[in-house]
Amino acid sequence: MCVGIPARVVELGPAGSHSAIVDVEGVRREVNTVMVDDDGLAAGEWVLLHVGFALTKIDEAEAAETLAFMRQLGSVYDEEIEAVGIELP
Amino acid sequence: MKYIDEYRDPETARVLLGEIEALAADQPQRKLMEVCGGHTHAIYRHGIESLLPDSIELVHGPGCPVCVIPMGRVDDAIAVARADGVTLCCFGDMLRVPGGDSTLQEAKAGGADVRIVYSPLDALALAEREPDREVVFLAVGFETTAPSTAATVLAARDRGVRNFSVFCNHVTIVPPLKAILDSPGLDLDGFLGPGHVSTVIGTDPFRFVPAQYGRPLVVAGFEPVDVLQGVSMLLRQLGGGRCEVENQYRRAVGGGGNRRGLELMREAFVLRPHFEWRGLGFIAQSALALAPGLADWDAEIRFDVPGLRVADPKACQCGEVLKGALRPWECKVFGTACTPESPIGTCMVSSEGACAAYYNYGRYSPRARIPVSAS
Ligand code: SF4
Questions:
Q1: Distance from CA of residue B278 to its chain's centroid?
Q2: Hey, what CATH topology would domain A5-84 get?
Q3: Residue B361 main-chain phi, psi, to 5 deg
Q4: In sequence order, what E strands does B16-112 have?
Q5: Which of A21, A60, B264, B337 pairs as cysteine with B333 (C-beta 3.0–4.6 A)?
Q6: Which residue of A has its CA nearest to B43?
Q7: Rounded to whole angstroms, how far apart are CA atoms B146 and B254?
Q8: Cα of B319 from ligand 1 centre, angstroms
Q9: Which of B287, B282, B279 is nearest to B346 (CA)?
Q10: Phi/psi of residue B336, each to 5°?
């Protein structure tokens, strides 16, 4: 549960909402961006996502590499992707 | 070098391994601790240990937040979950963590309303959607996760959501590291620091490791090449008589950490005077509680929690494993009585726990001797 997973910003929420829609391996969800908003976030950019919050911005090449790596990680990756897709209970 | 070809960048890995071999040849035996569960998982998944020279030993540290939750706190969470009208929300990892006599999963099977969420924000959304339920979020995690809980509870306050509260078990990384450095007979030569925790707190809080304890620390990312580069940087320091905090993971980590994340934590939390860690005992100022101003959202205040201390089962040696004093397979119940399907200790529950990582991937490592029943 401690790993961050790369997510691509699809659409920013209204100004001041600290939210964005991201795409994680085809799963879309709303996430909180309060920790990265100071760095200026734009659609198309990548973030490291952890429990519904963007932890830090990462560049695209880094995101692609990390995802490729995580896919080989097996259970940790599967759990993370599965968790991102958990619907509101 | 069978598995190195599986690496994303086998060439870089080969160069780094060559470097490590050359550095290790001029040095005595070195014992390096990887602090974080993410590293542990990567190390076993990728057979990194078996690629390193025999004189380099990697030992696992206390950096898996699920592994360090003591049984008494699990019992407390179960008691809250069983209270009338309560819906307890937690991360999936927590369901199977053994308490004194049951788990949250068993409580759920017994009728308690326990639900898995991905984010604390989902628990808050649930509270807003179901105003008749008392929704409690079971918060666990190091500084990577704590800002998320902070932002969520502050949002609950700002939006006046009264049927939401947090059962806070957030822990901090520096005090257990100190406890390990203070333990008698310490024989660790250096540390691989946690990459994702450092995105929040930065690298500065680790300066005490070289300054007070004379051990180098390199903050490293999670990929095999990151770990190898971290090991190489540590050996370079040790060989050259240097002792500093270095940052291998520059692409995500800055020295000062995440300003906004740290602010959120300061607003929402206070340090507890002490907190019990599974296997490590009580450690002063090592965990976070909700700030007094947030008492109305604090599940520990709003619900009756037994708050009892429950001794770890006799057979369980998680404490020794978390301190790096014992290798997972050296625990008497590893792979026999204690398996991921029916864990006795917490290190077997989370896939980032040292025992689970060994159990799942340890067969790649010639140093691990897995009992026949485990394969
Ligand atoms: S094998 Fe089980 S009981 Fe032994 S240290 Fe590992 S998790 Fe703890």
A1: 12
A2: SH3 type barrels. (2.30.30)
A3: -125, -5
A4: 30-36, 56-63, 86-90
A5: B337
A6: A73
A7: 18
A8: 9
A9: B279
A10: -110, -85
**The tokens 């959202």 sit on which residue?**
B297
With contact defined as beta carbons under 8 Å apart, do B290 and B297 qualify? yes
Orientation of helix B146-158 relative to helix B259-268, angle to 10°: 60
* Helices and strands of chain B, counted as H and E runs: 15, 13
Q: State CA B271 to chain mean position distance.
A: 18
- Give residue B231's identity as a one-letter amino acid code: V
Q: Whose CA is closest to B311, among B64, B94, B98?
A: B98
- Which helix (H) or strand (E) is B20 found in, with range? helix B10-25
The two tokens of residue B308 are 């009892």
Domain ranges of chain A: 5-84
What are the pLDDT digits (tens) for B277-310? 887 888 999 999 999 999 999 999 999 888 888 8
The pTM (predicted TM-score) of the whole model is: 0.87
* Pairwise CB contact (< 8 Å): A53 & B252: no
The domain defined by B71-173+257-302 carries CATH number 1.10.10.10: no
Decide if A1 and B350 are in contact by the 8 Å CB cutoff: yes
Q: Contact, A56 vs B252, CB < 8 A?
A: yes
Domain boundaries, chain B: 71-173+257-302
User: For residues B146 and B267, is the Cβ–Cβ distance under 8 A?
Assistant: no
The interface predicted TM-score (ipTM) is 0.84
* Cα–Cα distance for residue pair B42/B303, rounded to 1 Å: 39
CB pair distance less than 8 Å for B199 and A48: yes
Residue B343 Cα to ligand 1 midpoint, Å, equals 8
Confidence of residue B66 (pLDDT cuts 50, 70, 90): confident
* pLDDT tens profile B14-37: 888 999 999 999 999 999 999 887
Q: What is the pLDDT of residues A10-64, one digit of tens each?
A: 999 998 899 999 998 888 989 999 999 888 899 999 998 999 999 988 888 777 7
The answer to whether B58 and B43 have CB atoms below 8 angstroms apart is yes
Q: Round to whole Å and give the CA distance between B63 and B154.
A: 26
Q: Which residue's structure tokens are 């290798």? A: B327
Over the stretch B181-207, which tens digit does the pLDDT of each residue have? 988 877 899 999 988 888 899 999 999
